[in-house]
Structure formats: structure tokens, C-alpha cells
Amino acid sequence: WKEQWFGPANLDRADLRISGMDTYAVVASILLQVLMGLYSVTEAPDKDASRLQRVVFDVQITLLAIAVISSVFCMVTFLLNKIYAVTALGTYKDVAYSVFGQITAKYRVRAFWSLMTALVTFISSFALNLGSRLGGRKGVVATCITLGGGAVILREWTQVMLMAKTALGQWPAAVLGKLAIPCSVRELQHTRG
């Protein structure tokens, strides 16, 4: 209750939370650079290309667009949160910092999930690009393997997040939202085995 009325008692912890926001923004900006690189090497199919090739290209570009928008949203949201949090603390508005953190939690949660969306759509677009470049059966196999690997990665990320939710009682401090995901210690032990 003291932090609600007087602001953060320990500014080191506030600094950790702010650096967490910064980390999300940096990851999103790096992903954005990778997405721009993938976009620059994605070539439109020839005029005489099959309908399937045109559909794959359209899906790939759509996935890239979703990834770019999601990544930009994440980056800007976390940077804005960081800027305003640092400004509040720097001007000795500790209570305003605390209130700002609480009322913007839902936006950080959305930004976190938009980063996850960007990563998943990037992997999907990359898999389609790989398949288009290789072509034929080899391309189909490469796309399936990449999508399968992406699904395994997504499952692992989900497990890490659920373990963090269970062990910490919440999502990472920079995200801190009231997101209800039921997960007990028993479920956590089951996922380890």
C-alpha cells in the first residue's frame, strides 16, 4: 500500500522494470529489421506462374505485413511506456509512475502478444519463402519441416511462459497485466516430465 501512496520504495526495482520494457522494444526492432530483409528478397511470381504460386506469394506477403505491424506496435508501445515511466521518475512523480504503470498494463500485455504474433507470422512467412525458393517436392518438404519446427518452438515458448506464470505468479514484470491463465504447480511438474 505504501507504493500506491508514496511511489516505488526501491528505485532499483523500478529500473529493472523499465529495462525490461526496453528489452521488448529492442527485440521488436531487431525483428523488424529481419522482416524488412525478408521482404526485400521476396519476389513476386512471374505472370505465367501457377495459381498456387500466386496464392502462396499473397499469403506470404500478408503474413509479413501482419508481422511488421505487430512488431512496430510492440516496439512503439514499450518505448512510449519506457519514456513516460522514466520521465515520471526523473521528475520525482513516483506516485504518477506507479499509477501510469497500472493503467497502461493492458497496453503492455497487448504489445507482448503482438510480439508473439510477429514471431509466429515471421516463421510462417519464412517457411513459405523457403518453399517458394526451393520449389517442387523439396520446397514442400522444407516448408513442412520449417512449419513443424516453428510449431515446436511455439510450444516451447508457451511452456516457458506458463512456467513463469506459475513460478512468479505473473507474466514478466515489464508486461504485468491481469491475464488469467490457469496453471498450477502440479501442471508445471507435469510439463517438466
Structure in words:
The protein is mostly helical and 193 residues long. Helices cover 81% and strands 0% of the residues. It has 7 helices and no strands. It starts with a helix and ends with a helix.
Low-confidence stretches: 176-193
Sheet with the most strands? none
Number of strands: 0
Give the helix tally. Answer: 7
SSE pattern, N- to C-terminal: HHHHHHH
What gyration radius follows from the Cα positions, in whole Å?
21 Å
Q: Indicate the overall shape.
A: elongated
Distance between the termini: 40 Å
What is the fold's blueprint, element by element?
Layout: H1 2-6, H2 11-41, H3 51-90, H4 94-103, H5 105-134, H6 136-168, H7 185-192
Helix pairs in contact: 2-3, 2-5, 3-4, 3-5, 5-6
Keywords:
single chain, mainly alpha, 193 residues, disordered C terminus
Question: TL;DR?
Answer:
This protein is mainly alpha-helical and 193 residues long.
